[in-house]
Design goal:
There is one protein chain. With about 240 residues, the protein is mostly helical. The protein has helices at about 1-20, 25-35, 40-90, 110-115, 120-125, 145-150, and strands at about 170-175, 205-210, 215-220. It has one domain. It contains 6 helices and 3 strands, in the order ααααααβββ. It has a 3-stranded antiparallel β-sheet, with helices on one face. β2 and β3 (about 215-220) form a beta hairpin.
Length: about 240
């Protein structure tokens, strides 16, 4: 009985002693540290978020540019079809471009309004990219009548479609990469290279081009092997 009492007393003393013993401070700090971020870890997380955000923004910007370019190409095809239909009904002549002519002018009628007399015409003629530059004009495509202008002795003239002997190369229209007045609904390339005279600012530094056979493509510069501003001479640049 005395042995049992002594054994129980020792056992209780050991339990009391172990309960009062505190763990080392390093163990406490290590345990607390597992539940919080250090400053370095926070900076790393922030840096990762910034990088991911910039990558996503670049992807979205690229998708937006691609969508705008596709819309512009589609509108140029519609313009080409309108030119073809009009020419078929008017002895293969397109409406002549003049000076700066507003959309609502009745003295001289802009060629854009002749082809698209409906109120929705300016919507079809507004490039979603180039309309943001150059005074934010709603008339983003020009009449490619440089050759007709030269044939007429440097005078405004209707473009005769039957004179285009190189339709796959002849530049019929394209983006107005030129500062026309905002209200000018009658843009042309009589006296200025409205495609390549300036560095392209839209469509990822490119312009969309409509050719005489109605195909369209993107370009950064004049390509003599596939483009011409002449009815009959291949590879002729605007200024020659």
């Amino acid at each position: 009985m005395a042995y049992f009492f002594r054994h129980t007393t020792i056992h209780n003393d050991l339990r009391s002693t172990s309960a009062n013993v505190k763990p080392p401070s390093c163990m406490v700090q290590r345990h607390v540290g597992r539940g919080a971020f250090t400053l370095v870890e926070m900076l790393v997380v922030v840096a990762i978020i910034v990088v991911l955000t910039s990558l996503l923004l670049a992807v979205f910007a690229g998708a937006k540019t691609s969508a705008r370019t596709s819309q512009c190409l589609s509108q140029l095809r519609q313009l080409g079809l309108a030119m073809t239909v009009y020419g078929a009904d008017n002895n293969e002549l397109l409406p002549a471009a003049h000076a700066a002519v507003p959309w609502d002018s009745t003295n001289e009628v802009a060629w854009t309004k002749v082809l698209f007399p409906q109120k929705s015409g300016p919507q079809i003629l507004t490039c979603p990219s180039y309309s943001e530059f150059y005074y934010q004009s709603h008339f983003s495509y020009f009449m490619g009548a440089r050759a007709a202008f030269e044939e007429a002795g440097a005078q405004p003239a209707s473009l005769p479609l039957r004179h285009i002997l190189l339709p796959a190369q002849y530049i019929l229209s394209g983006d107005c990469n030129f500062p026309f007045p905002t209200q000018d609904a009658d843009p042309d390339n009589y006296t200025a290279d409205t495609l390549f005279g300036l560095v392209p600012v839209g469509h990822g530094r490119q312009v969309n081009v409509l050719f005489g056979d109605l195909h369209v493509l993107k370009a950064r510069r004049f390509e003599a092997d596939s483009m011409t501003f002449s009815f009959t001479e291949p590879g002729k640049p605007w200024d020659q």
